[in-house]
Amino acid sequence: MKKFEKYNTIQGFHSINTQLIVDHTYRILNVNAKFPGSTHDSHIWKMSLIRNHLSNTYRHDHEWLLGDSGYPLEPWLLTPFSNPGDGSPESRFNVKFTSARSVVERAIGMLKGRWRCLCKQRMLHYKPTIASKIINACAVLHNICIENFDAAYENEEYDEPYNANDFIHFPAGNSLHTEGNNNRSEIMDYINRVQ
Questions:
Q1: How much of the chain is helix, strand and coil, in % rounded to 5?
Q2: What per-residue confidence (pLDDT) applies to 149?
Q3: What angle, rounded to 10 degrees, do the helices at 89-114 and 128-147 form?
Q4: For the chain, which end, N or C, has fewer CB atoms within 10 Å of the first or last residue's CB respectively?
C-alpha cells in the first residue's frame, strides 16, 4: 500500500492523500482518494472499507498486505521492523519486505507515467471531489492498460522512495498488534530458514 499526493495545500492549493493496494502484476486492487493530503496514512487505513472487510473476513489464511511504517501492524497488514540490527533476522526480513513492497512504488511510477496529470508538477484545475474521481479513473485505466499488455511507463519524476527507517510508532500490546507481530515473526523465521 502506498499513498501519493496530488496537490500541496501549503502552497495554496488542495492536496489528496491517495491510498493504493497493488498486486505483484502492478494492478491496482483498491484505491482510496477521499482524504486531504494532510491526513495521515494510518487514519485513512482506519477509515477504509477494505480494512473493515479484512477485519471481518481474516481467518489466518497466510495472506497479508504489506504496508510501510506509516501503517499499524495488524494480523492482515504487515509492516517492517523498527531499527533492526545489521545482519539480524529482523534486518533480513526488512530487506525482503522492501523488495516485495517496491512493487507499489513501481506501480505508482507507472500510473503517473501514463497519466501525467497525477504528477506533482502538474495540477488538476478541479475541486477535490472531481480530482478524486479523476484519480480513480486513472487507476481503472491503468488496470485496463496492464490487462491489454500496454507498455509500462515509468515516471522518472516520482521521487518518494520507501524509507524503512521512517517509522511511526503505534502502541503495542493490543490483540491486533500482537497477532500481527506473531505473523511477522513467523515469516521472518521462514525467511531465515530458507536463506
A1: 45, 15, 40
A2: 80
A3: 100
A4: C
